Amino acid sequence: MEREEDRVETLLADGTVDHGPDHGEDTPPVDETRHSESLDEEDNTLKPRFIRKVTDALEADDQEQVYNLVEPLHPADIADLFELIDGEYRAPLARAINDLLGSEVMAEMNDWVREDLVDDLEPEEVAELAEQMETDDAVAMIEDLDEEDQQAVLAEMEPEDRAAIESALSFPEESAGRLMSRDFIAVPEHLTVGDLIDYMRESRDLATEFWEVFIVDPKHRPVGTCMLSWILRAPRSVPLADVMKRDQTLIPVAMDQEEVALRFQKYALISAAVVDDAGRLVGQITVDDVVHIIQEEAGEDALLLSGAGEGDINEPLPRTIRTRMWWLFINLGTAILASSVVALFEATITRLVTLAVLMPIVTGMGGNAATQTMTVTVRALATNQLTSSNTWRMIVREWWIASANGWGLGLLMAMTCQVIYQDWMLSFVLLLAMILNSINAGLSGVLIPLGLDKLKIDPAVTSTVFVTTMTDTLGFFFFLGLAEVFALH
Amino acid sequence: MEREEDRVETLLADGTVDHGPDHGEDTPPVDETRHSESLDEEDNTLKPRFIRKVTDALEADDQEQVYNLVEPLHPADIADLFELIDGEYRAPLARAINDLLGSEVMAEMNDWVREDLVDDLEPEEVAELAEQMETDDAVAMIEDLDEEDQQAVLAEMEPEDRAAIESALSFPEESAGRLMSRDFIAVPEHLTVGDLIDYMRESRDLATEFWEVFIVDPKHRPVGTCMLSWILRAPRSVPLADVMKRDQTLIPVAMDQEEVALRFQKYALISAAVVDDAGRLVGQITVDDVVHIIQEEAGEDALLLSGAGEGDINEPLPRTIRTRMWWLFINLGTAILASSVVALFEATITRLVTLAVLMPIVTGMGGNAATQTMTVTVRALATNQLTSSNTWRMIVREWWIASANGWGLGLLMAMTCQVIYQDWMLSFVLLLAMILNSINAGLSGVLIPLGLDKLKIDPAVTSTVFVTTMTDTLGFFFFLGLAEVFALH
Questions:
Q1: Where is the sequence biased in composition, kind Basic and acidic residues (chains A, B) (predicted)?
Q2: Structure ipTM over 0.90, yes or no
Q3: Which of A226, A233, A435 to probe by mutation at the B interface, max B CB count within 10 Å?
């Protein structure tokens, strides 16, 4: 890309080297004093006072003031600023800081906030931003646009950049193909360390930031990787074949990003080669792009289990309401099912209304126990710790936990019940019901996610409904049913 | 260029080249064919068939067979193997593969599994492993040992390694000081690119893997960092001061690992300098160590919210039971509180037992709605997306969601209730109770985590109890209370 060539030019000509700020991933030098005035050092977030200053300046339409306030910020903090201020200030802020709204800022910005912003920009402005960005970041920005705007933006771009982005968009969302950057360094096996260094010194349009060099065979298939630190420390005459690491993790271009993240983590990768179906090197994924995914995918489970969807606090309100209400609606179904079980025993309850008082305890305890087991199972599945090799051990384990909890807490409650109601039969029924429901909870909590996973359904999304149905419905059934059987009144 | 050629000659004279593979972090070359036989390529986990082979060989006490099976595995997969086989096989496996049980394997292994294993090893064996490891990994292994064993192991170590580990252990657990590695490259500002390359070529005992070089002032305070890729591409004559990036994120040695992880993520760092109180460079943290933390910290919330503690499936059973039962015990308290509210209205229920049938719907829906809001709030707090700057916006947002859900689902249920029970008053009470409890749920779900966070209590650990107490207790109270008020019978 243009700016990159320029840089290398100056580098080789008169040795005057820029300090990164004008390109790619780098960050502008920051004047610490002004920095600390804007950033809360403790938790590294922007201070409310600073944000008020910005919004006040925006209110006063004092663009210069706004620019001066924002200028010393790190791009990631500028992105945060856009997320933290209210919606109506975002477009004005973007206009006020114009050239500060660089590619890194857009790359760091929350999807929804960025989408808002991009809608306010002209296609050529978006195209200009996209051209400065690494392919993967550009794709992240453009893939959210609707078909028509996408075309408009792509039309404004340099042919080669457009080609790169179009090919990226041709891969499924959340796949390695969307994630990978096409800027990487690949050299033939026969080079020596010296050749490689000279090649890198001389070539114009190389990636500005890379951590490993890929060595490829004549068919452009990766045969090894070489860490820059090794290249720097080996004598020039050593053949790359001798310093490179042959064992490497290759990422198929269609691999899901969650799987990519797991491999980066498992093998502690800094960068990895992405290969097409023919095994040819087509791109690289670097860890800094994966870090966000690891964080999202890991945090996702909590949100999915709770039915909060993406749980993104910047998501448009109507969309959030739709997601959450739909979930509550489904769970209402399970609640109705549970209460219809109660309805079956109306007669029993009328005879002994205390049953109505105690029944929430049986279902509540079951629900909590099931949630514990379910969450552990879902996490273990998501992190590949739970595989068919140790499934059985996991089930047995949860059975023991459930029994222990059932007996322990069941006895406790039964005694409390006896103290309060002086009714041996009732206390006995409560004990039995709690033991049964605890075991029911433990087994549902582990078997339902496992079953869904086997059926290739994401257990995080669907487990809760089934599990609570089991614990509530059966909970009421055990308790009221036993009460009926033992003719309590 | 000339100068460089000469220098290489001399280097070649006594040139000892390190071919990465024999070194600390590196991974043995893998014979792909045998690899694929052991690994399930789809999800990159060990095949059950392979694991059975290993355990069978262990049963048969055929150590050579075991060794040959395990030998081609990547250290991370060997670590997985230890986690996947049953407890009783672990010590025999360790003995069978002896030298394959290297530092990387131990570093990758689950804490509990490693602890088991370490207990079976002699102090000097542990010391030997620790000496091969990066400081941070060694610390992770040793910090789990009890005081006495720690001393025994440390006593067996080389003075300098011991010193490094003892100083690491002097920092609080989960702090940057424990995480950081003491192997890093720091050079004075006045060097040129050429000087640096020569320095790295000549010095023998440098870290084998590093991605950035730190430039320090005479007081050993970091003044900038330099990516290897820049060094490789700049002419030898350029002073480091001109290629280095002055703006950098410094990690105070006492910073909590969760905060470290957030900064790596926010600023897309590959490595960062760790500084002591005097601002002196004392270590570096690299992203591959942070990746595990990001994953843990992000996944943790789901587990903590469910009261499953660490939710580690390798945790000793008694410990797991204790954690979970304690949580269920506390929640039993809230359940008792809720049911005592029901007890208040026994008379009302006796007059109209249908109330007992419908009441779980009110509390159930409230509980689910609250969980959604609570989870979103906890995640937003954990990821620094929710700060005092946008707290108010968040509360208002949740208020709207809660009202929408309350009205929508309340009306739905009220109509259903009317169809079934033909009782306008009852349906009206149900509607009112569901709206009130939905808003109660929404506000508790956002205010309770926020309040706990303000009190510096981890909202993920404690929110659930308070929130469910609110939704259950008030849920029953709204519904039955209103029924009483409107004299339903």
A1: 16-38
A2: no
A3: A233
